[in-house]
Write a structure and sequence with these properties.
Immunoglobulin-like, five-stranded antiparallel beta sheet, three-stranded mixed beta sheet, 2 domains, single chain
Length: 315
């Protein structure tokens, strides 16, 4: 038995040593790890990388495991014992009582001359407790308050005020239309963003960058087309935002439905891998990325009138 215990101890020590020597290590913890239902808590992920390792951390848009993401942030990279430490924090909230395991976001890395590899993640246990279960003998339950006096019904006054405001707005609109100079005959309204994006996608395909092996230029141009379309179509400052900031903004404001947000998230993450991690995609990957961009533009384009009707409206 003693020999068996010694062998197990040696194996554990060897495993710890191998983990410490790994090019990229992922550490995570929750602050605190026990909360009540609906209470926010902080979840922190540290990615420790050896010199020369290129690291890409994927950003979840809405949830981490059983918990909803309310906010997140990225701290500046730091040096610790000759290694680079990337720290990201998330503000999470849970709505289901019980013990939950939070798996850290996927982390990919590449060392010089090596293949793109996924670093082992770390699971963190978080316990969500019921508020009622923690105070079963609560004595602060108060009696029902007496009825409040009936408030004044202001709705007729609001309706009258709204009608007067509407009449004033209509009068101002009629005056503005009649007083503005007539537009030049035959002038067309600006082209819609989805038409401009479709034309740019077609031009990118005609350039045949993939056949020449210019994958980075291809993905940079493709990402720029999609981001420009987002600025023009949804008024989002997409060119100035990172992929993580953009996904969180669209999740908060609800400008994209979940299906389109997932499609766009996969596309942007893959583009970042090619542009910043020197990931070498295949021709099939490039074609799939172009099709994803075209599908996103087609499915989010607004319904517009046919071209003859647009010309008649412009005249």
């Amino acid at each position: 038995m003693r020999r068996l215990a010694v062998a197990v101890a040696l194996l554990l020590a060897a495993a710890v040593a191998r983990a410490d020597d790994a090019p990229v290590q992922v550490h995570a913890h929750a602050e605190p790890d026990t909360v009540t239902i609906g209470t926010r808590f902080r979840y922190v992920v540290e990615v420790v990388s050896a010199p020369g390792a290129e690291v890409v951390v994927e950003q979840p848009a809405e949830r981490l495991g059983d918990f909803e993401i309310l906010d997140f942030g990225v701290q500046p990279a730091a040096q610790r014992d000759g290694r680079t430490v990337l720290t990201r924090w998330y503000q999470l909230v849970g709505w289901e009582v019980g013990h939950h395991l939070v798996k850290s976001p996927p982390v990919h890395y590449r060392v010089a001359g090596g293949e793109l590899t996924e670093a082992p993640g770390e699971d963190v246990g978080v316990t969500v407790e019921s508020v009622l279960a923690k105070t079963p003998d609560a004595t602060d339950i108060r009696d029902i308050k007496p009825p409040e006096p009936v408030p004044v019904d202001w709705r007729p006054y609001w309706v009258l005020g709204g009608a007067l405001a509407l009449l004033a707005a209509i009068a101002a609109l009629v005056w503005r239309i009649r007083s503005r100079p007539a537009r030049a005959a035959g002038a067309l309204p600006p082209r819609p963003p989805h038409e401009l994006a479709a034309e740019a996608l077609a031009e990118l395909r005609r350039r045949n960058l993939v056949a020449r092996g210019a994958f980075k230029e291809y993905y940079s141009t493709l990402s720029g087309i999609v981001r420009t379309y987002l600025v023009q179509r949804f008024r989002l400052p997409a060119p100035e935002m990172t992929t993580e900031e953009f996904l969180l903004t669209t999740a908060r404001e609800g400008r994209l439905d979940p299906g389109h947000r997932r499609l766009l998230g996969d596309f942007l993450v893959e583009s970042d891998l090619v542009k910043f991690a020197r990931h070498l995609p295949t021709i099939a990957d490039s074609e799939r990325a172009w099709s994803a961009a075209q599908r996103f533009v087609d499915e989010t384009a607004p319904l517009t009138a046919p071209e003859p009707e647009r010309r008649r409206a412009a005249g």
